[in-house]
Amino acid sequence: MERQVAYYMVECERPVWKSLCEKFKSNVTGLGVPFFRQCEAVAEQEFVRFCETNNIAARRKVLLEYTGRGTLESAYYYLSVRDTGEYAQDFIELRCGGAGPGMCWNGAKQVRKVTVTDGMARMLDANEIVVKNYPIFPRTYVVTSRLVERMLSLHFRGIAFIPCLQQGSDYSEDERSFDFESDRLSAAAKYFQMVIRERAPGKPSIGNLLDASACPRCGSLNVVDGSTEDEFQSSDLSDADFQWVADISTTNKGPQHLMGQIAIISQRALRFFLDGRIRGLKQYLTAPPIKYRAAQIVDAH
Ligand SMILES: [Zn+2]
Q: How far does residue 13's CA lie from ligand 1's centre (Å)?
């Protein structure tokens, strides 16, 4: 079953906020985000009235959630995977070098294969798929050889599997290189990087760009706040089972490039992960709580 979840960004004084939280206790997350599921329209109307009466500025956005139960109704979903909790990224070369306090991954290039540490290996054995915390571009998913076999037999489109290196093993300089293909490594590897090759043909719209942190050098955006959540036209996505998005369109600031990469998967791919009870899949968001996020395609019928 899929449903809309509306959530609000509110600005108000502390005492009013306190009474809002008390009044709408079950609809405010621990992080202070008021949210209302589609079936809670009455509570939401009450919330809107409360905001009007108390002069609270409240901005509404909507996400589409698959609850994990019943039929999958959307064509595409966001891929959300447990992270490895480590930030090593010696397998890429950064190209921009901008971005004040953080760093900029725009144009970063993978030059070496990923090395799976013992800690990552333990995580992978339990979860089948994980994502490295860094880099945010290119997003680096790692999977077990078991999962690769099953995915290959289903001929998912848009991905390739590159064998990972294992900590403590010896490799030649060629073998370490990302582009170097080696039958020996492919046969021996217990873990593979799942590379999403397909780039989505279009860009979702976020309405007006209201706020963002941008790299001071190349201008690519990191944290983005639009007047709406991502809205796709059906032509923005290809029929691949895995694809990535790193561009958005905005009404007030034209097209914008994102520093990170968003992975979108087909309904068939999500079904595969769910039916296989793949533990590496994780809840998309906690505030508001969204189990699996569906891509909102505004011209779909
Ligand atoms: Zn940059």
A: 37
State pTM to two decimals: 0.95
For residues 38 and 104, membership in a common domain is answered with no
**Cα dist from 74 to 65, 242, 266, 267, 289, whole Å:** 10, 15, 9, 7, 19
**Residue 234 main-chain phi, psi, to 5 deg:** -65, -25
CA–centroid distance, residue 139 to ligand 1 (Å): 16
Task: Please check whether residue 279 is in contact with residue 128, taking contact to mean a CB–CB distance below 8 angstroms.
Answer: yes
How many distinct structural domains can be found in the chain?
2
List, for residues 234-289, the tens digit of each pLDDT value. Answer: 999 999 999 999 999 999 999 999 999 999 999 999 999 999 999 999 999 999 99
Query: Which residues constitute the domain of residue 8?
Result: 2-66
Distance 220 CA to ligand 1 centre (A): 6
- d(CA 99, ligand 1 centre) in Å: 6
